[in-house]
């Protein structure tokens, strides 16, 4: 039985950000309509807590091309110091009619692209129309991906970037300025980076807050991306309290991110503080931004249905274009 192997180069070529944003919109709307199977992920620390082993199963039953699958990956936060990505693994795609394996795809590139695409989708839905002053807190893979994806939904007029390592911020600013033909400024502090910004993306490996609610300008939209475990958060409680909060999946948001679990434990918010899921916003079940001065927040955890929708899209493009390597099991 032939299975198509698609590497990083294939994924990046076949999943441009503009297309991926629309693919993510379709997947999250399907999830909100009950056309997906999305259990909680299973994440296990290695005995020395150097990294996590994560399994993310799911299924997508929309669009007349039903698929099931699993993403298996490792998350090693310290990899950046060695010049390697923190997230590495594979997405295994199966058809849902007979359970036949279809493709084996690089997970790192899918994760990078679809995560940024979902943030761009949330930004398109929630940020003010005129928003274009972007602050990036973090300089890794997701910072680069978010800058590229956000350019698809808003005409960025200013970009500032901050890192705990000022050298990383300077290098990021120089490289991304050249890549996009857009001035990117390194900021000396996180507060300085977000001062007056109307789009803020926290895309770091921080475990303690790096964004304070008091720093966020009225009317800003925030994508919280980097922290996805109960004991880690990039935003302080005040930032969550003052924001109109949206998530990718309510069940996941109430089990996984310290961003939400900590304010819940403190009694600063209740579960009702979550306005809704991005998919619910897409199908008109909940309302988005209500006023120009309202702060909106998207808590991104990443879902298997996003990976499967991306993998399905890549697989079909690869078959059309004769890309990938056919393996016989």
Walkthrough of the structure:
The termini are close together. It contains eleven helices and 16 strands. The strands form two sheets. Strands 1, 2, 3, 4, 5, 6, 7 and 16 form an eight-stranded mixed sheet that branches. Strands 10-9-8-11-12-15-13-14 form an eight-stranded parallel sheet. α3 (107-126) packs across α11 (304-321). The protein has helices at residues 8-14, 17-32, 107-126, 141-150, 166-180, 190-194, 237-241, 250-253, 258-266, 278-282, 304-321, and strands spanning 2-6, 36-37, 42-45, 52-60, 67-75, 87-95, 101-106, 133-137, 158-162, 184-186, 199-202, 221-224, 244-247, 274-277, 296-299, 325-328. The protein has two domains: 2-111 and 305-328, ornithine cyclodeaminase, domain 1; 128-301, Rossmann fold. The protein is α/β, with parallel strands linked by helices and 329 residues long.
- The H-level CATH homologous superfamily of the largest domain, spelled out, is NAD(P)-binding Rossmann-like Domain
Helix vs. strand class:
alpha/beta
Main sheet properties: 8 strands, mixed
**What's the level 1 CATH class of the largest domain?**
Alpha Beta
Helix share bin: 25-40%
Number of structurally distinct domains: 2
Give the low-pLDDT segments: none
Task: Give a nutshell description of this structure.
This protein has 329 residues and is of the alpha/beta class. It folds into two domains: 2-111 and 305-328, 2-Layer Sandwich (ornithine cyclodeaminase, domain 1), CATH 3.30.1780.10; 128-301, Rossmann fold, CATH 3.40.50.720. The protein is 35% helix and 25% strand.
């Amino acid at each position: 039985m032939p299975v198509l192997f698609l590497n990083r180069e294939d994924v990046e070529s076949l999943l441009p950000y503009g297309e991926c944003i629309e693919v993510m919109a379709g997947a999250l709307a399907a999830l909100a309509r009950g056309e997906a199977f999305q259990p909680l992920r299973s994440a296990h620390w290695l005995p020395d807590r150097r990294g996590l082993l994560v399994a993310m199963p799911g299924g997508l039953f929309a669009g007349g091309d039903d698929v099931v699958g699993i993403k298996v990956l490792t998350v090693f936060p310290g990899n950046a110091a060695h010049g390697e990505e923190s997230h590495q693994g594979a997405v295994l795609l199966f058809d849902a009619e007979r359970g036949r394996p279809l493709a084996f795809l690089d997970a790192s590139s899918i994760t990078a692209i679809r995560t940024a695409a979902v943030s761009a989708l949330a930004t398109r839905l929630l940020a003010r129309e005129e928003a274009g002053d972007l602050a990036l807190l973090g300089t890794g893979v997701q910072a680069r991906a978010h800058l590229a994806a956000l350019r698809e939904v808003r005409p960025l007029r200013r970009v500032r970037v901050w890192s705990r390592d000022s050298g990383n911020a300077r290098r990021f600013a120089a490289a991304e300025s050249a890549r996009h033909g857009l001035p990117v400024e390194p900021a000396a502090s996180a507060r300085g980076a977000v001062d007056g910004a109307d789009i803020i993306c926290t895309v770091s490996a921080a475990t303690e807050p790096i964004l304070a609610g008091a720093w966020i300008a009225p009317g800003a939209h925030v994508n919280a991306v980097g922290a996805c475990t109960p004991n880690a958060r990039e935003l302080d409680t005040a930032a969550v309290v003052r924001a109109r909060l949206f998530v990718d999946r309510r069940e996941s948001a109430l089990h996984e991110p310290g961003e939400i679990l900590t304010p819940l434990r403190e009694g600063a918010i209740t579960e009702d503080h979550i306005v809704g899921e991005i998919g619910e916003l897409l199908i008109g079940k909940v309302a988005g931004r209500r006023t120009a001065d309202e702060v909106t927040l998207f808590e991104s955890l990443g879902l298997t249905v996003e990976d499967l929708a991306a993998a399905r899209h890549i697989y079909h493009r690869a078959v059309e274009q004769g890309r990938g390597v056919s393996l016989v099991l």
